[in-house]
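Action item from last week, closing it out:
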Amino acid sequence: MKKKGLMTVAVVMLLLCAGCGAEEKTDNISEGMAAVQRLEYDAALQYFDAALEANEDERLLCRGMGLAYMGLSQYENAISYLERALQLSGGIPEDMDYDMNYYLATAYFRNGQAEAAIGAYDAILALRPKEVEAYYLRGCVKLYTGDFEGAKLDFDQAISMDAQNYDRLIQIYIALVDNGYKDVGREYFAQVIADNEKTISDYDMGRIYYYLEDYENAKNYLSKVKISANYEASLYLGRTYEALGDYDYASSIYNDYTLNDQSQPEIYNQLGLCRMQMGEYELALMAFQSAMNIEGNDMMQTLKFNEIVAYEYMKDYKTAAALMSDYLKSYPDDAVAQREYQFLKTR
């Protein structure tokens, strides 16, 4: 299972928002945006070229081009088109303008322009001071640049504005841990538990203890949740048993859940990872491929990579190399995959 970079969650979230826009003269643009959603970025650019020829909406076209180039990891081009799209905006900012500033901040960050990314979030907050997500994301970038004090101010603000958003609290904790500030993250958790002890759910308490690496408490709280009807609780309880080294029981939790619900790709992915740990590579492959067959899931990059790893462990290097070649066409900036591909080509 691959660990994602700092802004992965932001990129995924923004791409999912990429379908809105004007309705007139946008046939090719709409097709291009659909291709972006499918991660078919070269095909998207072809549609956008056709949109240019057809004189379709320039602002939406530049926005689409920016997203396609982001997908291809060509961040200089992405920045140019997104900046142009913002220049074409009217005098009064619309929702799409704020979205594009989020996209632009991500492109700046990926292009090594952290200060410009912070500036994009500044622009959002100057007009929308209650935009909690902008505080969180700006804090992440500041943390990356070494500005811990500035990052903490932004995290404090985000938490104070949405104190019971435990998803974001966990994201902040992970960012702090990744940058060497685990103790600060633990302080956030301790404060939240103290402030919400009587109202916090068993599920939220369990996953907080999971991240605190107190697996016995995590297990106790999560076991109170009806996991057959709650896939997220199933995930955390299974991961807790994984952390305790009991892959067999963890896999049984995941497998039992799939008997009732076959629509959650993350459950299948974790089942596959457990099977890998147990040396059951063919069963792992089946789990990954079952997840890949679920329409509209947003885990395709992870699943495709794990599928390749399963073939590699099965010593089917030819299939693994062919799949990796296709994988890199969709995810060219995956440095780990690039190194793995060089290895596979020698087998």
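Closing note: The chain has 20 helices and no strands.
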